[in-house]
Amino acid sequence: MEIMEIDERVRDLSAHMHDKIAALDAKRKKYLLYAAIVLTLAVLFNILNHFFFHFPPSALPITLVPCFLIIGVLNGFYTHKAKKEIIEHLCAILGLTYYAKGVFPVSDIQRHKILPRYDKAECEDGFSGNIGHVPISFQEIILKKEGKFKDRDEKGHEEEILRGVMIRIGLKKKLASHTLVLANSKLGTFAKTAFSKYTQTKLAAPKFEKEFDLLTTDPLESHLIFDPAFTERFLDLATHLDHKHLKASFKYQELVILAQYTKNSFKFGHLLTPLTEERIKKVFNEIKVITEIVDVLKLNPHIGI
Asked: How far apart are CA 260 and CA 108, in angstroms?
C-alpha cells in the first residue's frame, strides 16, 4: 500500500472511531455492572454470614477469590473484543492482517542467533502484509527463563528476560552468508566470535561503530550490504524504532530485527480505563512505525536490499 494512500485514510480515522468507541464503552460499562453485582453479592454474603450463618473467617477469602476470577474473565472478554474491533480496523488502513496469538513461532527465528537462551516464549499481537510489495510480519514476544528455589533443585517462578517486537522482512536477494548487528559490547562480541565462524567487521562509520558491532561469516558480503548509504539508513532505523536494545540479522532471504522495549506494545482496553481516541491513535502509530521500516531502509523488491 502506498504511503500517500495510507495518509488519506488516516485522516478519516477519527470519523470512524467515534461510533466504535461509543459502542465499546457501552460494553465496558455493562461488564463493569456485572462486576459490581458480583462484588455486591460477595459483600452481602459476608454480612449475612457475620449475623446469621457464622461460617469461619476463612469463608471471606473463599468468596472473594471467585469474584476476582470472574472480574478477570470479564476484563479478558472486553479486552479481546476491543482489540479485535479496533486493531482489525487499523490494520485495514495499513493493509495488514492481525493475528491475536502471534503470526509466527519464535522457533523460526532461532537460526538467526539473536535470541538469548530461554525456557518459554509467548507471542501475541501479530501482523503481516506487504508494504510497497515487500513482505513484512511482526509481533510482540516475551521470553522467560525458569528460576529455581534457593537450596532446592526444583523449578520456581518464571523470570522475564526479554520483551519486545520481532520483525521479519523478506528480501528479494538470497544472501550467501550471515551478517549480525548487535549492540556494542566487547564481552558480547567476544562470546559470539570466539571459536566460531563469525568475525567482527569494521565500517568506516564512527557513529555506527559506537552503537553497534557488525559480525559476519563473510566480510565481503557484509560490506556489500552495509555500504555507506545503507549504514546511514540503518542508524535512522535505530532512531525510528525508539528501542531499548536493537539486534538485526541478515540471512538467506530475510532480514530479522529484534527491538527490545521495557513496556507492552499494541496495548489498550481495560474495564477500569475508558477507551479514548488518543489511545487508539497511539497504538496506530506503534504499528505504523514498524511498517515504515521498509521506507526507512528503502528496501527495493527488485534488488533485495
From this structure: 18
Instruction: State the chain's mean pLDDT as an integer.
Output: 83
**Residue 263 vs residue 107, higher pLDDT:** 107
Which three three-digit cell numbers place residue 268? 489498550
pLDDT at position 207, please?
A: 93
- Give CA torsion, residues 31, 34, 40, 44, to 10 deg: -160
Confidence (pLDDT) at 25: 84
Q: Which amino acid would we find at residue 39? A: L
Give the pLDDT band (50/70/90) at residue 65.
Answer: confident
How far is it, in rounded angstroms, from Cα 187 to Cα 192? 9
Does the pLDDT value for residue 82 go beyond 80? Answer: yes
Q: Is the pLDDT of residue 155 over 60?
A: no
In this prediction, residues 217-245 reach a mean pLDDT of 89
**pLDDT for position 2:** 47
Rounded to the nearest angstrom, the gap between the alpha carbon of residue 274 and the centroid of all alpha carbons in its chain is 23
DSSP state string for the chain: --HHHHHHHHTTHHHHHHHHHHHHHHHHHHHHHHHHHHHHHHHHHHHHIIIII---TTHHHHHHHHHHHHHHHHHHHHHHHHHHHHHHHHHHHHTEEEETT-SS-GGGGGGG--SPP-SEEEEEEEEEEEETTEEEEEEEEEEEEEEE-TTS-SEEEEEEEEEEEEEEEE-SSPPSSEEEEEES-HHHHHHHHTTSS-EEE--S-HHHHHHEEEEES-HHHHHHHS-HHHHHHHHHHHHHHT-SEEEEEEETTEEEEEEE-SS-SS---BTTB---HHHHHHHHHHHHHHHTHHHHHT--TTT--
CB contact at 8 A, 293 and 237: yes
Query: How many Å apart are CA 27 and CA 20, to the nearest integer?
Result: 11
